[in-house]
Design a protein that fits this description.
By secondary structure, the chain is of the alpha/beta class. The protein has 7 helices and 16 strands. The chain has a single domain, classed as Carbon-nitrogen hydrolase (Nitrilase/N-carbamoyl-D-aminoacid amidohydrolase). It is about 25% helix and about 25% strand.
């Protein structure tokens, strides 16, 4: 089976995981009612929390996490593949992971992925983020085989590192995922163009569920959850920053067709970088 309906769920997560879990339940039900067999939620589905003490109170281990438990139940009840874009998980070493989960129709966890690239940036107007101060980065890319094809994982800021997506495409991924909580500032500038670029350069579908709007902890995210085809065409979009669902039919055989038309994955070659440095040249007659 290469054809299915995929859905992006756009959220506006607050600081309370239990309230967010209730929102998750209603939005996933809406996506499933529209026939979606694969449903993706945004980065930090569980909670967006800037305060360190509130973060410590909100997040727990994978075994005790309300989002993990809710997602497992929803995947089973609706008979879908449910991809939690990420939620914060307390690791055994006491650090936090920004972790994605993929649940199968039986409710089991089929795969997980810890965000590799930490959002440590200094933007205009004093907007500053240091994700690495709270989260431990992952060190391993993940691809998973599903009934409709092979899925590659990423989270938010990973989008700016094309080598991750290229590695997953070379590993056979026909669908690349980018659940996110893009800031409004960076989203307005780069969200659409980067998602379409990752799709085009890898001949892959890109599915990107996003957070949107002004959140309880004060941040503002861009929204505009997207599904993009391997030719770079936008198939579905939540065209605002409000919570909602967008659904599109995807056929992963289109990925293989696109890669045959433009076989850049096969045509790629290793190369070295040759640096040409300025050479100091003495000028005749320059001495006084």
């Amino acid at each position: 089976m290469s054809v299915l309906k995929a859905a992006v769920v756009q959220m506006r997560s607050g600081i309370d995981p239990r309230r967010n879990a209730a929102d998750l339940e209603s939005l996933v039900a809406e996506a499933a009612a529209q026939g979606a067999a694969y449903v993706q939620t945004p980065e930090m589905t569980g909670a967006l929390v800037r305060d360190e003490q509130a973060r410590a109170a909100a997040f727990t281990t994978e075994e005790n996490d309300v989002i993990v438990a809710t997602a497992s139940r929803l995947a089973f009840e609706h008979g879908i593949h449910l991809h939690i874009g990420s939620t914060a998980i307390l690791r055994t070493d006491g650090k936090l992971a920004n972790r994605a989960f993929l649940f199968g129709p039986d409710g089991s966890i089929l795969a997980s992925y810890d965000k590799i690239h930490m959002f440590d940036v200094d933007l205009d107007n004093g907007e500053r983020w240091r994700e690495s101060s709270a989260y431990e980065p992952g060190g391993q890319a993940t691809v998973a085989d599903l009934p409709f094809g092979r899925l590659g994982f990423a989270v938010c800021y990973d989008l700016r590192f094309p080598q991750l997506f290229r590695a997953e495409a070379l590993a056979g991924a026909q669908v690349l995922s980018v659940p996110a909580a893009f800031t409004r500032q960076t989203g307005e500038a780069h969200w659409h163009v980067l998602l379409r670029a990752r799709a085009i350069e890898n001949g892959a579908f890109v599915i990107a569920a996003a957070q949107g709007g002004r959140h309880e902890d004060g941040r503002e995210t861009y929204g505009h959850s997207l599904i993009v085809d391997p030719w770079g065409r936008v198939l579905a979009e939540v065209d605002n920053d409000a919570p909602g669902v967008a659904v599109a039919e995807i056929d992963t055989s289109l990925s293989e067709q696109t890669r045959r038309k433009v076989p850049n994955l096969k045509n790629s070659r290793d190369f070295a970088v040759h640096e040409v440095r300025p050479v100091d040249v003495g000028l005749r007659g320059a001495a006084s």
